[in-house]
Amino acid sequence: MAKHALHTEFADIAALRQALDRRAVSAVELARSALDAAQDAADLNAFLHIDADLTLQQARAADAALAAGTAGPLTGVPIAHKDAFVTRGWRTTAGSRMLGQYVSPFDATVVERLQEAGAVSIGKLNCDEFAMGSGNENSAFGPVRNPWDRAAVPGGSSGGSAAAVAARLVAAATGTDTGGSVRQPASLCGVTGIKPTYGTVSRFGIVAFGSSLDQAGPLARSSRDALALLDAMAGFDPRDATSVQNCGPVANAPGRVQRDFDGAQARYEAGGAQPLAGLRIGVPAEYLGDGLADDVRAAVQAALAQFEALGARRVEISLPRTELAIPAYYVIAPAEASSNLARYDGVRYGHRTADYADLTEMISRSRAEGFGEEVKRRILIGTYVLSHGYYDAYYLQAQRLRRLIAQDFQRALEQCDVIMGPVAPTVAKDIGENRDDPTADWLADIYTLGVSLAGLPAMSVPCGFGSGAHSRRPVGLQIIGNYFDEGRLLAIADRYQHVTDWHLRAPASQDA
Ligand code: GLN
Question: Which residues form the active site (predicted)?
């Protein structure tokens, strides 16, 4: 059993920063402890690449900044990055054999921004290959185990990120979410995660999967900790053509999410015992219907009741095309993936086969050897739906559906302020459970895909556990907002976390 790292002795990132400021703890001590904890928890398989020298170099720089009085909002805070973000120094594999030895010459914008804010990276975290999956079982480097129950998956594709935060190896981690990959592992590991509005966080340096869907977001213990990371990560980046300059009337820059959070927070605080009075929570009938496990439904209903106790009003709404998000996403995401992954040809970078007679054979063998099953499946589907004759029947139809799904959300958000429901239909499944039916996992994305297709922000907040044999497997509540509502979502989740302690629970540590 893993041991919790030193940072867990402090309630949250804010408390940790204060302790660093008064020299109650140093960045080097925190980093060493996190490195040790990661080592002890090797059986989780959460980390893919660790380099103590690189980490300690960052930690020493953090201590120097603290001493010089130039510390930033995250100085000395131990975090780790999903291996889908390129990093100088640490290898970047995106969970693929194709990139097995790849070291990037530059840092992703997210990595750069978090480093500028002072965060110390403990290393790179395991994930599904090219972020394709819902259980972290598609990593070329083996599955990640759920720290709550090692027989279970941690969720995916940011499974290493969720597991590392849940096991208290790091204070927070980065993830990417194309169709649910921040929210779903956060839910299955009992941590707090947020996928922001598409375009608010730069995709520069994220190994591309589905470019019109990919967004980065943090996973952390609490909503406040997630806020601390997101605020530093978000902001316009001229190196990403889809990065937004403005979020409504305000610039997309660090400080925006924090300001929105503070504004919402001030209003809620003025509400006293009913901080959320007036908040209309839309609950889509389609999110609580058939296919949702009873234990997940019960945990979500209990969370909704808790929000009502805080003053919010529940409004029944409908998202009529919820089921259609699955075929729409599983056409669009593979289409974009097939195009993005064309770059791995054994020439520019990535794996090259040892044995070939000519160029064509070199490319096909390199790809056959480098890619795993799920990635090949998606490349085939994507190539098919984009091909002449099938483009209109599949790709174009999926794009039309995408537009209608986005409209459904806008209509629903006229009747309510935020939407709540489950993140996933069940608690974490067993490792290997869907081995013979690869598309079974796809169906489990039903509550997260629509949000991604619409480009909306959404988070997962721990709200309970499963029942019976699954009583140690966490359940997350999904909170969905309108475009650029990140600050408000985090403030709403924060009110919930004031009166509940699901987010404070952690899998037992060795010396607890
Ligand atoms: N489970 C979805 C998929 O496999 C979403 C993954 C993601 O968000 N990266 O594509």
Answer: 82, 157, 181
